[in-house]
From TrEMBL, chain A:
<comment type="function">
    <text>Carboxypeptidase which preferentially cleaves C-terminal acidic residues from peptides and proteins. Can also cleave C-terminal hydrophobic amino acids, with a preference for small residues over large residues.</text>
</comment>
<dbReference type="InterPro" id="IPR003146">
    <property type="entry name" value="M14A_act_pep"/>
</dbReference>
<keyword id="KW-0449">Lipoprotein</keyword>
<comment type="similarity">
    <text>Belongs to the peptidase M14 family.</text>
</comment>
<feature type="domain" description="Peptidase M14">
    <location>
        <begin position="98"/>
        <end position="382"/>
    </location>
</feature>
<keyword id="KW-1015">Disulfide bond</keyword>
<dbReference type="GO" id="GO:0006508">
    <property type="term" value="P:proteolysis"/>
</dbReference>
<dbReference type="GO" id="GO:0005615">
    <property type="term" value="C:extracellular space"/>
</dbReference>
<keyword id="KW-0121">Carboxypeptidase</keyword>
Automatic annotation (TrEMBL), chain B:
<feature type="domain" description="Cystatin LXN-type">
    <location>
        <begin position="2"/>
        <end position="100"/>
    </location>
</feature>
<keyword id="KW-0007">Acetylation</keyword>
<keyword id="KW-0963">Cytoplasm</keyword>
<dbReference type="GO" id="GO:0008191">
    <property type="term" value="F:metalloendopeptidase inhibitor activity"/>
</dbReference>
<feature type="domain" description="Cystatin LXN-type">
    <location>
        <begin position="120"/>
        <end position="221"/>
    </location>
</feature>
<dbReference type="GO" id="GO:0005615">
    <property type="term" value="C:extracellular space"/>
</dbReference>
<dbReference type="GO" id="GO:0008201">
    <property type="term" value="F:heparin binding"/>
</dbReference>
<dbReference type="Pfam" id="PF06907">
    <property type="entry name" value="LXN"/>
</dbReference>
<dbReference type="InterPro" id="IPR009684">
    <property type="entry name" value="Latexin"/>
</dbReference>
Length: 382, 221
């Protein structure tokens, strides 16, 4: 269907147009009534596709000039429906380019689930201070079983850009699901499980008390010392290297593997679903790294070549966006030795692709990355 | 012994590069200019018997205020085997010129000199990473001075970054120097520790930066 714009010049033209519109029952957009068509004033009519040629011929015959205002009405309708639907999928007015406290993130998760048919919110477990840990599942309804990609953010409280990225990621997927064939194809075969904040207690503590807090808030030594490094607490060569057994240390590995409820909550779910999980991603900051297993040993994992290949490709694609350079390699070689990490553990129990992302920056701002870097960081990481 | 080529992504040359950048920040930093490491391009290492490990580095620096303002550098970093308390030796060459900050420096100098009350500030950057424009020179001074502290306290198993200025207080002086008493937080990347450090910093546009006093502070529990 097309919409034509005509400015009749004479009364004769007006009469002809009125006749044309009524005989063919054309849809008057402006003015609304036939009798209001006047010389010298705008006339907009929608012409159904099969009649377009006939109408144009008739106008030409009578020397009435016209312009095509809308070339394809259906296209325009489709576009605006898309926009409306995608705007409804994400909560109105949620600002993804600023950092949000935990209360707002909880609210956001509820809203996201409400607004989208693709998203369901799930209970994962409780923290030390008895707060709820939720993850979001993004799933296209289908009767065939799908593989899973798991991504968690915020194991370390002070790394605020990581939960910001998890939220951004979900927003991007939902907003572009309708219009992006790649995303749709992706979700045809894969489910996404995203955990925006694992270390809820620690995250809240970094907002309210100590910005550079890293660990969880488990009390040790009769409450004189707090916090286990959750990323040293997993059951992967636990306690062997790059850790401390002293609670005062930032890399205190806890009283035993999976001693922390947050660790257990994640481990339980992943263990349960491990045969379906294709890829485990854990998001941290800072340093600009894509890290592969292992941290506990320099012996490469069995599928090291493939792991590296995929990571190199990711780093290259990332660099294309804003020129940000990420270093790629095994943790023990390019960062430091550490045992008990979630990434190592995921790979050890059989998940083939397991990576740690350390997002921007290189140290200029470090953990306190300014909000104007949220967007470029997230865009390039997508 | 010959120099061995290392992947620039590896941890050891990465630490050496961070150290070199900190040293350059100390030697070349001003209230208007904060050199920072953008990326390490190339690294070689020499194990010198009886002396130590020497890294030959090629890297790119950016400015903490202007990310797109970059410059290429080379440096040699020698970690001494023997004396564990000796700071590593650093030599560097910057290709080309760093931005001239004389005008900005003088503006800052006059601004502080004319303050009725001593400058006091906290949390730079703040929790959200924001730095008010009038605090940028204060941050740059800390960036440069922390370069000195980082250099003096680094070894092959450490990688320090300035994480935040917790507190800064100007100390009025009768001579022409400006004096600031800083409490900064250093992030040590290998242990992941946040280390409070006190520094007393003297500065004058013509005479440069001097750290007259610095000491590691206890982590408050």
């Amino acid at each position: 269907d097309q919409v034509l714009h005509i400015v009749p010049e004479t009364f004769q033209q007006v009469q002809h147009l009125q006749h044309l519109c009524s005989t063919l029952m054309l849809d008057l957009w402006k003015p609304q009534l036939l009798e209001d068509i006047r010389a010298g004033e705008d006339l907009h009519i929608r012409v159904p596709a099969p009649l377009v040629q006939e109408v144009k011929d008739s106008l030409d015959q009578h020397m009435i000039s016209y312009k095509v205002l809308i070339n394809d009405v259906q296209e325009l309708v489709d576009e605006s429906v898309l926009k409306e639907r995608s705007q409804r999928q994400i909560p109105e007015g949620y600002n993804y380019t600023e950092y949000h406290p935990m209360e707002e993130i909880y609210e956001w998760m509820t809203q996201i689930e409400k607004n989208s048919e693709l998203v369901t919110q799930h209970y994962l477990g409780n923290t030390v201070e008895n707060r709820t840990i939720y993850y979001l599942q993004i799933s296209q309804p289908s009767n065939k079983p799908k593989k899973i990609i798991w991504m968690d953010c915020g194991i370390h409280a002070r790394e605020w850009i990581a939960p910001a990225f998890c939220q951004w990621f979900i927003k991007e997927i939902l907003q572009n699901y309708e219009s992006d064939a790649t995303i749709r194809r992706f979700l045809q075969n894969l489910d996404l499980y995203v955990l925006p904040v694992i270390n809820v207690d620690g995250y809240i503590y970094s907002w309210e008390a100590e910005r550079l807090w890293r660990k969880n808030r488990a009390p040790y030594m009769n409450g004189t010392c707090y916090g286990t490094d959750l990323n040293r607490n997993f059951n992967s060569s636990w306690g062997s290297v790059g850790v401390s057994f002293n609670c005062t240390s930032e890399v205190f590995c806890g009283s035993g593997p999976e001693s922390e409820p947050e660790t257990r909550a994640v481990a339980q779910l992943i263990e349960e679903k491990k045969s379906d999980i294709l890829c485990y991603l854990t998001v941290h900051s800072y340093g600009q790294y894509i890290l592969t297993p292992y941290g506990s040993t320099t012996t490469p994992p069995s599928n090291n070549e493939e792991l590296m290949q995929v990571a190199q490709k990711a780093a290259a694609a990332l660099m294309e966006k804003y020129g940000t350079s990420y270093k790629v390699g095994s943790t023990s070689l390019i960062l430091y030795n550490n045992s008990g990490s979630s990434r190592d553990w995921a790979h050890m129990i059989g998940i083939p692709f397991s990576y740690t992302f350390e997002l921007r920056d290189n140290g200029t701002y470090g953990f306190v990355l300014p909000p104007d870097q949220i967007q470029p960081t997230c865009e390039e990481t997508m | 012994s010959p120099a061995l080529e290392l992947p620039p992504s590896h941890s050891l040359p990465g630490r050496a590069a961070a150290l070199a950048a900190a040293f350059i920040a100390w030697r070349r930093g001003t209230p208007g200019r904060g050199p920072a490491l953008r990326a390490l391009s190339r690294a070689r290492r020499q194990d010198i018997d009886g002396v130590g490990h020497k890294y030959h580095l090629e890297f790119v620096l950016e400015d903490i205020f202007e990310k797109d303002s970059t410059v290429n550098c080379t440096a040699e970093v020698l970690y001494h085997l023997g004396n564990k308390n000796a700071a590593p030796d650093v030599q560097f060459t910057i290709e080309g010129e760093l931005k001239n900050t004389d005008e900005a420096d003088n503006l800052f100098y006059n601004r502080i000199k004319s303050l009725k009350n001593e400058l006091v500030a906290e949390n730079i950057p703040d929790s959200y990473g924001n730095v008010p424009p009038e605090m940028e020179p204060i941050r740059a001074l800390a960036w440069a001075a922390s370069g000195y502290v980082i250099w003096k306290n680094s070894n092959e198993n450490t990688k320090y970054q300035l994480a935040q200025i917790k507190h800064v207080k100007q100390v009025k002086r009768s001579d022409e120097y400006l004096e600031f008493d800083y409490m900064i937080l250093l992030h040590e990347n290998v242990s992941q520790e946040i280390i409070p450090w006190q520094m007393t910093v003297l500065w004058h546009p013509q005479h440069g930066i001097e750290v007259t006093q610095n000491s590691r502070q206890p982590k408050h529990v």
